[in-house]
Amino acid sequence: MAPLLLFAALLAAAASAYIARSERQVRVLSFTFGSLIGLGVLACALSALLGGPVAPVAGWWHADAFTWFMAGLIAFVYVSATIASVRYVGAEHHEGILSLSQVRLYFGLLHLFVLTMFAATFADNLGALWMSLEGTTLATTMLVAMYRKDASVEAAWKYIILCSIGITLGLLGMLMFVHAAAVGAGLSPGEALSLSALRAHASALDATLVRWAFIFVFIGLGTKVGFVPMHAWLPDAHSKTPSPISAMLSGILLNVALGAVLRFKGVADASLGGTTWTNGIFLVFGLVSIVAAALFLLQQRNYKRMLAYSSVEHMGIMAFSIGLGPVGLLTSVIHMIGHAFVKPMLFFGAGEVLLAYKTTHIENVRGVMRRLPITGSLFLAGLLLILAVPPSALFTSEFLMIGVGMRFHPGLTLLALVSLSVIALGMLRSVTSMLYGANGEKAAEAPERWNLTHGVMLVQLIAAVGIGVWAASPGAFRLLSEIAQSLITTL
Amino acid sequence: MISLAHWNQLFTAGLLLFSLMLIGKPRLPAIIRHFALSSLCLAGLTVTASLLRGEAQGLYSALGTFAFKVVFIPAVLAYAAKRAHASMQVKFYLRPAMTYFAVAAALLAAYLVAGRFATVPFVSIALVLLGLSLMIMRKDLYSQIIGFMVMENGVAAYGVIAVGGIPLLVEIGIFLTVTAGALVMAVLSRHVQELYATGDTERLTELTE
Questions:
Q1: Closest-CA residue to B165 (of B52, B58, B68)
Q2: Which of A226, A230, A454, B110 has an alpha carbon within 20 to 30 A of A344's alpha carbon?
Q3: B79 to chain A, minimum CA–CA distance in Å?
Q4: pLDDT value at residue A491
Q5: What CA–CA distance (Å, rounded) separates A271 from A33?
Q6: Closest chain B CA to residue A145
Q7: Of residues B102, B124, B142, the one with CA closest to residue A168
């Protein structure tokens, strides 16, 4: 019942964008709805995670520790992106870049997008899962095409076509799972269309069919995660979208898709009687994603694309960690938190830079530290955190990953480590030239004032550091391993 | 007297045949028409397959296929193409001989896969591969949408033939999602047409690394 209430509230939020009379009202209503719903879910998630056993939800939906963990992350990114949107969209409307109808579309789709992400997280029914994953693509396509420029429409086209192909292959994989359950365990298709049923009867499924089913699901949903080589849409879509939406696409949507893949990994592992086979797939795709991202990041001319490729890298790191076994899975959970806090922050910062400089080309952005000292400082701090400089949460996870990796796969881990260093060099080089490079013009404009986005960025900064420190404590270890465990043992 | 099993085979053949034919068609209306015909065969297949299994609900699912994939989606695509003054002449990326060679290769691959796995029907693998190759070989917006829909028909055929009996609510949800996808693609294709004044995706080259 609870998920349906949440969906209704989000639908109301989306409708409010079309009921409001003025652009200001649209933003105020969305702000109100966004913060109320987001904070509500966040409170539920925290109480479920900290307060002991989680009550599962029956029917099409389910909730375990990992579900609530993911819901909490979505809620956090939702609230911060809504607040950042209020400032960003307001500024762009003021400058005449976005019309009133575009503002309505923006906020309407924003809430629908969040709805589909929650639905994909809570879904136990495979049909509901598939619809909500495809829904995330459909809800964001017009957001990618928002600016109606050549490049943004092209990015949107690539995005919807590639993700739709992926999700269709994913559906084929899911049906193969259902088929395997119908043949092996004698379930009716209606019963077998459920993750928990698949999981419960996993041992009865035919191993060959399960392997093929998982490959289809992995390739299909992996397209949405942005694993190389299925990532071709990602840098375009993430860089052409209004910055707060980029933040959500990069910061949380990729995690939601990865979470769905992990659910099927649980089924496949239980069916095959071991994790070796699926772990191998995760290791390979993870490593390839990290290495490819390093190559693209070395010579990046567009700072939003740089952040997008950095997301490819971080999804690669998570996949690589997952491939390393139980400790790696725990590591990837920490990494998900850190990435969901820091990446949106960088995109918000990028949005501020874009508002001031009107370009996403690194070579045209110089002297950010003088012209936008607050944004510049926060952006630099965020960059250091995403590069896993301690005390970032990402430092904790990457340090653990390298430690575990060196034990099991020293060669591959070394390659990953070298790529991570190349990425750090490439990103630092690009960003220092933006922040400190000499700009021809004088800083004639009025000094930058503290705004809403800066507040959001500061909170994210503190949270990312706080989580990094907290993750090393015994209490945190218990909670995080409970979350990771729920992916392995229960559904 | 033609038995139910014969009808079943006939519809399966039609589903594949019309999808094969649409690949060779140079004009957009013909492509859309052949897609609708192949979806019609899918609707028929849904009825016969479920009757053969002794279920009645295949009828509703077939109605859904008919309403969305035979009538609504083709109509929307034809309308969108007309509104955007899209060129009705579709560009081939490969020469016809090469196209048919690729199609033959796709069919052979499907045959090999289906031969190895008795549980996976040939027609659905073939449709998925045909849809994919259509999207790769044809470089125009509407062919890409149709390619996606052909793939989707292949997955639906798998659901009908191998799995069967998927709850109606889920079926409806999938129909609605696919239709929403086609609508968004149609709207987006209009934006592309307006901005680029062409439906040729070869021109979409702004974003290359």
A1: B58
A2: A230
A3: 19
A4: 42
A5: 43
A6: B188
A7: B124
Q: Which amino acid is at A479?
A: L
- Mutate: best of A112, A157, A239, partner B, most B CBs <10 A: A157
* B151–A212 CB contact, under 8 Å: no
Residue A20 has φ and ψ, to the nearest 5°, of: -60, 150
Residue B108 in contact with residue B133, Cβ under 8 Å?
no
Given an 8 Å threshold on Cβ–Cβ distance, is A158 in contact with B119?
Answer: no
* Interchain proximity A160–B188, CB inside 8 Å: yes
For chain B, list residues whose CB is within 8 angstroms of any CB belonging to chain A.
Answer: 117, 119-120, 124, 128, 132, 135, 141, 144, 148, 151-152, 154-155, 158-159, 162-167, 169-170, 173-174, 176-177, 180-181, 184-185, 187-189, 191-192, 195-196, 201, 204, 206-207, 209
Give tens-digit pLDDT for A46-93: 988 887 666 666 778 988 899 999 999 999 999 999 999 999 999 999
Check B181 against A164: CB less than 8 A apart. yes
Asked whether A112 and A10 are in contact (CB, 8 A), the reply is: yes
According to DSSP H, which parts of A325-409 are helical?
326-357, 368-371, 373-386, 393-408
Yes or no: say if A133 and A224 are a contact pair by the CB < 8 Å rule.
yes
A-chain CB neighbours of B188 within 8 Å are: 141-142, 145, 153, 156-157, 160
Question: Residues near A406 by Cβ (< 8 Å), separated by ≥ 6?
Answer: A413, A414
Q: What ipTM describes this predicted complex?
A: 0.93
Specify the DSSP class assigned to residue B200. Answer: B
User: Which 8-state DSSP code applies to residue A55?
Assistant: P
Report DSSP letters for B57-107, one per residue.
Answer: THHHHHHHHIIIIIIIHHHHHHHHHHHTT--SBPPBSS-HHHHHHHHHHHH
Distances (CA, A) of A458 to A86, A309, A348, A377: 17, 23, 11, 10
| Phi-psi domain of A442 (left: phi exceeds 0; alpha: psi -120 through 50; beta: other) | beta
pLDDT tens-digit readout, A84-113: 999 999 999 999 999 999 999 999 999 999
| CA dist., res. A358 & res. A231, Å (int) | 27
With beta carbons under 8 A apart, name residues in chain B contacting A125.
170
Query: Is residue A112 within a helix (H) or strand (E), and if so which, with residue range?
Result: helix A100-122
Nearest to A68 by CA among A40, A38, A37, A41: A41
Q: Cα angle vertex A249, ends A389, A126, to 5°? A: 120
Q: Which residues of B touch A175 (CB under 8 A)?
A: 155, 158-159, 162-163
